[in-house]
Amino acid sequence: MRSVRRMTVITLLAAFCLALVFAATGQPQVLAAEKEKKPTAIYKVDTDQKVVALTFDISWGNKVPDPTLDVLEKEKVKKATFFLSGPWTLRHPETAKRIHEMGYEIGSHGNLHKDFSNYPDSWIREQVSIAERSIQQVTGVKPTLIRTPNGDFNPRVLRCLNQMGYTVIQWNTDSLDWKNPGTQAIVNRVLKRAEPGDIILMHASDSSKQITEALPQIIDGLRAKGYQFVTVSELLAQAKVQSKVE
């Protein structure tokens, strides 16, 4: 019994000493802060401003990308964000350059179109680095935003990408254009779901056969509701400014 009591006293004293050390160094606060810093993906930003980010993924094809750019040019949409895959960028350098020359923001859509969560960090780093070099080689842009293939990720993937200096961008409104449900279905879905600070997912790959017909109506409909178009980076910057003001 004496030995048990002695151990109990020693344990309590050790805990008390640790508490004193933490109180002096502020370590509990540091640990709490680190615990709160969980890797996250961005779906939208909280804002009262009527702004949205139109985003387009491109992984394959040469029939839809340029007509999509033609629509944006005709509708005088100056701000949009394109997530380009590495292989597509190398296969279609002129279109990739056109995206950059039109002033649109360029992010990465990875290299091989496979779910990152199924692979180790070393594979993710390799694939993202390959895509980064391809995009930079063709457009001169070193992307800092990434939308993972299929939007797939988990906390480990997010942490790996954050460590590489990337911000992972998801979406709040999915047009489902890749399902080709009909032009009006795509338009109605976006106009019904879009809200201030939204990131809207669309595709400019050849798999999205109806986006060029739907896009003018989406643009007109959002403008009629008072929305302005910004890049994803501008959306994130606005959120940071608001958080500083608050």
TrEMBL record:
Residues 50-230 form the NodB homology domain. Keywords: Signal. Residues 1-23 form the signal peptide. InterPro entries: Glyco_hydro/deAcase_b/a-brl, NODB_dom, PdaB-like, Polysacc_deacetylase_ArnD. Gene3D superfamilies: Glycoside hydrolase/deacetylase (3.20.20.370). This is Polysaccharide deacetylase family sporulation protein PdaB. It comes from Alicyclobacillus cycloheptanicus.
